[in-house]
Amino acid sequence: MSFKQFCLFVSMLVLFSCSETGLYEKVVFMPQNKWSYSNRPSFNFEIKDTSSNYLVYFIFRHADAYEYNNIWIKLNSTLPGDTVSRSERFDVTLAANSRWLGTGMDDIYDHRVLLYREPVKFFKPGSYTISIEQNMRVESLDHVFNVGLRLEKVK
Questions:
Q1: The predicted structure's pLDDT at residue 1
Q2: In b/e form, how buried is each residue of 91-124, taking b as 16+ CB within 10 angstroms?
Q3: Which pTM was predicted?
Q4: DSSP string computed for 15-56
Q5: pLDDT above 50 for 13
Q6: Fewer Cβ in 10 A, N or C end of the chain?
Q7: Cβ atoms within 10 A of the Cβ of 69, count?
């Protein structure tokens, strides 16, 4: 096991061993550390409390060798009982002034980026599905380890 793989394993162990992870959090690993157009991780979660507001985060882990200071993503959401999804496009800033904004260890960087300025309200109880696709101008992004989604109930 290489040092990078060991760090990745330890990071995931710490992430999942925390007692309070919010309402929902899931990450999907990218095969061969590449995120292609065809790879659209899907996240399914249940909303029961429609009176609360939620914070929605995009989770992104990459190597220092990642070539861009941002990533364009598209969120495709399907509400309970619907068959048609709605899409939203986001420009997620990952670096400023030649420095990564996320937390780093060795040459691996983690980002947890709030997608909406205001908390989100889910009006329908039930099962929601959100898929995330990379929407950059290249078919495959190199040096991407994983992508994820996190929802936290606002207290």
A1: 56
A2: eeebeeeeebebeeeeebbbbebebeeeeeebee
A3: 0.83
A4: HHH-S---SEEEEEEPGGGEEETT---EEEEEE--TTSEEEE
A5: no
A6: C
A7: 14
Query: Chain-centre distance of CA 140, in angstroms?
Result: 17
How many Cα atoms within 13 Å fall on the side-chain side of residue 106? Answer: 13
Can you tell me whether residue 11 is helix, strand or coil? helix
| Mean pLDDT score, 98-123 | 94
CA distances (Å), origin 125, targets 18, 25, 51, 74, 87? 27, 18, 10, 24, 20
Q: How far is CA 41 from CA 17, 44, 95, 152, in A?
A: 23, 10, 23, 19
The DSSP secondary-structure symbol of 98 reads T
> pLDDT at position 6, please?
46
Name the residue ranges covered by the structural domains of the chain: 22-153
Q: Which CATH topology does 22-153 take?
A: Jelly Rolls (2.60.120)
